[in-house]
């Protein structure tokens, strides 16, 4: 299963994609719009999602709600320090990693997010 990256800054998306590949996480799909992600999620199930909450087409609340309903682990990768859960409670189901984060912080969050999933494999 691929990792879904939702990020509207191309260089950040590429950095995250390359970081995941370097750590053996295989295929990743990077999308910049919540509407694209919802369409992709109609026929795909990611093993993990790394999400910037504010994309080029607005807040990705519907995506986060869908991931939370499905039990798909996700990381909220954001430069915002405001409480995103005030705007959308489903953001609370993911771990917040503040941008910019060093690669080791991102990978530690990935490991924590996938740990329950890996334990059942």
TrEMBL record:
Alphabetical keyword list: Phosphoprotein
Residues bearing the modification 4-aspartylphosphate: 52
Residue ranges of every copy of the Response regulatory domain listed in the record: 2-114
SUPFAM superfamilies, A to Z: CheY-like (SSF52172)
Superkingdom: Bacteria
InterPro entries, sorted: CheY-like_superfamily, Sig_transdc_resp-reg_receiver
Keyword Phosphoprotein attached: yes
Provenance organism: Rhizobium phaseoli
PROSITE patterns, per the entry: RESPONSE_REGULATORY (PS50110)
GO aspect biological process, one term: phosphorelay signal transduction system
UniProt name for this protein: Response regulator
């Amino acid at each position: 299963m691929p990792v879904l990256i939702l990020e509207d800054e191309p260089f950040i998306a590429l950095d995250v994609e390359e970081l995941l590949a370097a750590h053996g996480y295989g295929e990743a799909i990077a999308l910049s719009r919540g509407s694209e992600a919802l369409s992709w999620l109609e026929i795909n199930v990611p093993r993990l999602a790394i999400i910037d909450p504010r994309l080029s087409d607005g807040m990705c609340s519907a995506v986060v709600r869908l991931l939370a309903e499905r039990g798909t682990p996700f990381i909220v990768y954001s430069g915002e320090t405001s409480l995103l859960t005030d705007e959308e409670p489903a953001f609370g189901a993911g771990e917040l990693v503040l941008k910019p984060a060093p690669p080791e912080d991102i990978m530690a969050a990935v490991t924590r997010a996938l740990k329950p999933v890996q334990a059942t494999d």
